[in-house]
Task: structure prediction
Amino acid sequence: MKPTIRVMLVEDNPEYREVIKLALEDETDIELISQFGTSEIALRSLQELSTRKAPDLVLLDLRLPGMDGLDSLPYFRSALPDAKIIILTQSDDQADVLRAIGRGASGYLLKSATLSQITDGIRSVMKGGAPLDAGVARFIVASLQSKLPNDQVAIDLSPREYEILTLIGDGLVKKEIAEQLNISYSTVDTHVAHIYEKLEVSNAPSAINKAHILGLFRN
Result:
């Protein structure tokens, strides 16, 4: 017998909640254990549940009264560290997609999806997959393809920071950089700290690698 996937639905539209409820009732391996109209009530309910009764997966709408899905997503991840979260929404806004995935959503489906696509998505994510609406998937691929050549614009290094990063890439240490640029060691140290922060790295090798990936050393 297949283990049952326990699902929590967070959706403010009662008619759509009923549609999902009826669809999941026909599935022998998926059980809708709870449904809520707001994130706040859903999160409060988790405080009263034992681990044994916690959902394996949350279907989360984005446009909710009170705390919306994007804002509540990190709280669900914290309350249910072992659960998967699939965004189920009408929004195909690119910013929503990127924020949701960046905040830990395991999948992103639109309400225009068929019920079989939703149930297949639930099974897929529990097996380690990442179900995405076809249009959303195309956008993500296009975004990744176009991001790297232009990403240096978003890094926003100052001319001095770029100069120091280039010298780090040439293999110079902080003392040598200070001597070459005729500035103090502490000034170099401050610039390097800012470079690491902007590149989101913690050391020189990682900074060099990230700079190469982003094309910062290209002529």
